[in-house]
Design brief:
Structural class: alpha+beta
Radius of gyration: 23 Å
Helix content: 25-40%
Largest sheet: 12 strands, mixed
Number of strands: 20
Mean pLDDT: 90
Shape: globular
Strand content: 15-25%
Low-confidence stretches: 1-23
Number of helices: 16
Distance between the termini: 48 Å
């Protein structure tokens, strides 16, 4: 099957490089942003495409494609692409694009970057390489066309290319990942002038294909949310990320909270592959879903902007099933199922969670604990560090019965990746239901987008009926802005630094 984007879509990815309102000269302005942390891998774009890295890398680098909030794969450094065989894709590059050091974007350079990600001893072990492991090779067909061959049929390859930020190929070849880490060079709207422990100062890359409207960008790390709020309200910064619902309520007058529904569903993952556990019973897992008042979480803890859910795939992502409704809050139903499963008096469980990952997550976990106590389930809520969480997750070395894990449709806006993690397909698996995993496997290689989406919807229904998790809520992103800031948008957390300026 051939999948292509028409040239008419190129305009969607192009940038209006005019200056600000009424043609005012804004290039003397400095745009100031406060985030919770700077990238752990500094300028290397290969560690992860999540936060906080994306807040900085979106200013420096570009990808071949950009997946927007609606799940549309948009032209970015590539203007079109097509599936020339089951395992071969060609991408046509945007013309006239230069890196901030003057290097010209071409197909050989893109192929070299992909090869580096696949073969470098350090980078090949990192998150981006893991998500692109289906790629077997890349080569230039001509100056503007790069051909990517995959090891298996992968209908999501154009979506996945949004994960690969492209650094200057010659710099990467000469200096390796260490060189890009310390001195990042990309095609984005800004180039790094100074990178200290807590602050990055960038200047306009006026030759960028999406040149910015302001002359300087400052990105400062303020780990304490209260410090970020103070910086915004005192006029020290123009934009802050990742604030709590309570803080959002405080932004009035010259400041406002921008709330966006995230493509992320908060849940507690059940472990059914380790020993004799109540989580082995589908009726117990269903009971726990009935036992929690998710509407109360969405309304009282997430400013009425969250959403009770009964599936892990977010609306707008491929595979979302609109017919799946949240489990209603029904204590009597939960108790009935518990009794039928052989636990009329309940049981005790330990649940491992990391606090500080989502708005109001600590309060949400406490509400869940209180609701489960009403049906006889005593929860030992154990707060762990993310480092320990990751170690347990990768090795499936949990000694608990459940743990906090989100269903993340980002950055590809597709439900299959998260579904795979909550299935036998993840190895080692914390949860396994083989019939559902077999259904999912069929969808993963279906090149027909409509048929594939229907297959994923069927998997979503199976994962609702035989839940691998306690589905909670679709989460929200809350950012704080000065009322003078123009051009802001939260596009799956890829901030439009080329569009923003101050009125």
């Amino acid at each position: 099957m051939s999948v292509a984007l028409a040239a008419s879509l190129v305009a969607c990815g192009s940038s209006d490089n005019s200056t600000g309102s009424d043609n005012a000269d804004t290039h003397g302005q400095a745009l100031r942003v406060a985030v919770d942390a700077l990238p752990g891998g500094k300028g290397s774009p290969f560690n992860t495409t999540g936060t906080p890295e994306v807040y900085t890398h979106a200013a420096i680098y570009d990808q071949l494609t950009l997946v927007d909030q609606d799940g549309t794969v948009k032209p970015w450094l590539a203007t079109s692409w097509k599936n020339t065989s089951d395992t071969t894709w060609t991408f046509t590059l945007r013309s006239g694009v230069k890196f901030s050091n003057g290097e010209v974007l071409d197909a050989q350079g893109v192929a070299d970057v992909i090869t580096f990600v696949k073969t470098d001893p350090e980078v090949s072990k990192q998150a981006v390489a893991g998500d692109l492991r289906v790629i077997a090779s890349a080569k230039a067909l001509d100056a503007a066309t790069v051909e990517i061959t995959t090891t298996a049929v992968d209908p999501l390859l154009p979506n996945k290319m949004t994960e690969l930020f492209i650094p200057a190929p010659k710099v990467l070849a000469q200096k390796g990942n260490a060189g890009i880490t310390s001195d990042p060079v990309g095609t984005g709207p800004f180039k790094v002038q100074d990178w200290s422990a807590n602050k990055i100062t960038l200047t306009a890359n006026t030759d960028s294909w999406r040149a910015p409207k302001v002359g300087t960008l400052e990105i400062q790390a303020l780990p304490d949310p209260a410090s970020r709020m103070q910086a915004l309200q005192s006029g020290q910064v123009d934009l802050i990320t990742a604030i709590s619902p309570d803080q959002g309520k405080q932004l009035t007058g010259n400041y406002r909270a921008e709330i966006t529904k995230a493509a992320q569903v908060m849940s507690l993952a059940f472990i059914n592959t380790k020993g004799d556990t109540p989580m082995a019973s589908p009726k117990v897992r269903q009971a726990l879903n009935y036992a929690v008042d998710k509407d109360a979480i969405a309304q009282s803890l997430l400013l009425g902007q969250g959403e009770a859910v009964g599936q892990g795939t977010s609306a707008k992502a491929a595979g979302y099933n609109p017919d799946i409704k949240p489990f209603p809050y029904d204590v009597n139903k939960a108790k009935q199922l518990m009794a039928e499963a052989g636990y009329p008096n309940g049981f005790e469980i330990t649940v491992d969670v990391v606090v500080g990952s989502y708005p109001a997550d600590a309060e949400i976990y406490q509400l869940v604990k209180g609701d489960l106590a009403k049906v006889g389930v005593s929860v030992n809520l154990r707060q762990i560090t993310f480092a320990n969480w990751l170690k347990f997750y990768l090795a499936n070395s949990w000694d608990s019965q459940a743990f906090g894990l989100s269903w993340n449709s980002l950055p590809t806006m597709d439900g299959a990746r998260a579904m795979s993690l909550f299935s036998c397909l993840k190895q080692p698996a914390f949860f396994c239901d083989q019939p559902t995993a077999d259904l999912l496997k069929q969808a993963l290689t279906n090149l027909n987008p409509d048929a594939r989406s229907r297959q994923l919807q069927t998997v979503g229904q199976a994962m609702h009926d035989n839940p691998p998790a306690l589905y909670l809520v679709r989460q929200i992103d809350i950012n704080g802005l000065s009322d003078k800031l123009q051009g802001f948008a939260n596009n799956n957390r890829f901030l439009p630094y080329d569009k923003m300026y101050k009125s």
